[in-house]
Design goal:
Radius of gyration: 21 Å
Helix content: 40-55%
CATH architecture of the domain at 1-75: Single Sheet
CATH class of the domain at 1-75: Mainly Beta
Structural class: alpha+beta
Strand content: 15-25%
Distance between the termini: 64 Å
Number of helices: 5
Order of helices and strands: EEEHEEEHHHH
Length: 160
């Protein structure tokens, strides 16, 4: 099997955050060569492989190679920005909803979209009414706990 060479490549700087160092290499491939056997995927123009190398404090290392697809033609550097922006959304919304509101643990078989929308409303109300800029600021989960049994506080958030 012939391995396709990337049409573009971008290597990020090493980043040090959250107790680990990490570096990413973005490689862009032409999708039509890989997907020609799948006519239902004809809109996919490019595939992006992100090679992530991480070293966590204590020397434990890991690598991963997720693949992304796109129906546009962009540079590897542009893809690096868009993929990182995607993870900002994932970490800033979905992770918070799961950790603070235990969204994934709740089994809502009736109207799960409505339930998720209500959680998003609550999260937006909390973020509007509290400052999370300092290290002394409360956590979203802490705010939920403090105000769970104080209906007057909840109403004040809504009409503030």
């Amino acid at each position: 099997m012939k391995i396709q060479k990337p049409i573009d490549r971008f290597e990020s700087e090493w980043e040090c955050a959250h107790g680990r160092i990490e570096q990413r290499t973005y490689e862009v491939f032409e999708a039509d060569k890989c997907l020609r056997k799948f006519p239902e995927w004809k809109e996919i123009r490019q595939m992006i492989r992100v090679h992530r190398v991480r070293e966590i404090k204590g020397g434990k290392a890991s690598t991963e190679d997720p693949i992304y697809v796109c129906n546009d033609f962009l540079t590897a550097k542009n893809y690096s920005k868009y993929i990182r922006d995607h993870w900002l959304i994932e970490n800033g919304l979905n992770h918070v909803k799961d950790v603070s509101f235990l969204e994934d643990k709740m089994k809502r078989h009736i109207n799960p979209v409505n339930f998720s929308t209500c959680i998003s409303f609550a999260l937006n109300i909390i973020r509007k009414n509290f400052s999370f800029n300092s290290k002394k600021s409360p956590s979203i989960r802490g705010i939920l706990f403090e105000n769970a049994m104080k209906i007057e506080n909840v109403l004040n958030f809504l009409y503030h």
